[in-house]
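ugh ok fine here u go
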Amino acid sequence: MPKPPVRLTTRIHPTPTQDAHLRAIWTTLLTAQHTLTAWLHHRAGGGNHSLLAFASGTSPISADHPRPRTRALPTLDQLDDEVRAARDALGWTPTVPPSALRWMAAQTARQWHSCPHGTLPGPWPPAQPPELHLDHSVRVLDPVTLAISTLGADELIVADLYLPNPHWHALLRRQQRRAVHERNLRDALECSWLDAGDRDAAAEVLARRTRGGPWAELPWPELPEPCPGDPVSREETVLRWIDGDGLPARWVVEWRFGAGEVPGWVHDDVLGVDVGYHHPFACAAHGLNVLTPRPFRGPFAQPPLVRTSAAPHHEAWARAQHRRAMFLRLRPLLESHLDLALGYRAVVVERLDWGGFARRGFPFADYAQDVGLVSWLDWLNALSVQHGVTVLRMPPAYTSRTCCVCLRVGPRPQTGELFRCASCGQTSHPDLNAARVIRRQGWTALGWP
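structure:
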């Protein structure tokens, strides 16, 4: 049975203009979905008009006013054909790329075919979070820059492309294959233009260079050869708007990878992990107590920019490089602790209250995003499925105040102090004590003896 794809997300930082453009794409996609839903109601009720013929002068149909189904629904291929025939005339393109329209049609078809009897589905609600399937419209230009061709002149978006090394290399290999293919096409067109006088070839090579920009001509860095079992990057790229998880609302890019042969867990045990500020990781298991200090000293907050007479055209790019410098320093620890966690049957981490840190005036959430700790939690969730590892998120209440031996709750240690239990006398580093408490909570939640 094939394994499901691995989905890893990275944060992007669109400008207000780019954000408005992305939301305009989503608004047009919603309009297209509402029109398609109304047409499906028309077909379900016995109508025979095409999508294009039906779309003019028809008001959307909501789920509150369903119609009984009297005929079979179109297949997905038929839906694709209808959308393809209508998209230009109805103004859906070039605002919405074909890949996003195909995804919308497939999702709508899946909803309709999942309810063969009873109430027919209505249109997607306007409050549905944006989800843009842009696929090959997204290119990686460098570790902090993406080009999204659907944005036109505003295509360059600053990004924090924090991925494990094998997945980062897989993504770059796919981009490299596309770049080589495009370069070969341009070379062939140039030969047809310059050697055979082909005017159409001259126009085509100019159009391709216009779309690709100067970045398409830059050489790619040398990449290591893939090893057996390495992930493979897929041509499926999704932009999502994420809100409500305690972190600031943000746009992310979801990258999808095919998983190779990966080993399962080795240790039939529970690993407790405490993610922290001064010590990125404290890990506890049977016979294991690991406290990992931070591999750099700081400062960690973004410094103010020294203004000069020239306008800071590249400030966002420079700040992304600033964040990436911290991530690269921490990445060996992130990857080694990911390997450690994926070797255990179960891993328990705190369900961190990111918003609580901000309310207390502690910038841990910003720090965790900037250096890659939030990305590490995403990696763990995504890759644990491939390795057969159970990941539990436990409430964070009192883990820093509870004794890992007798479970008595006491006062929180001050910064720099050891944890000392007033009941049993147990003394340890506060982060290690928290990791052991988290492990015990997970063990109990799993119902293990």
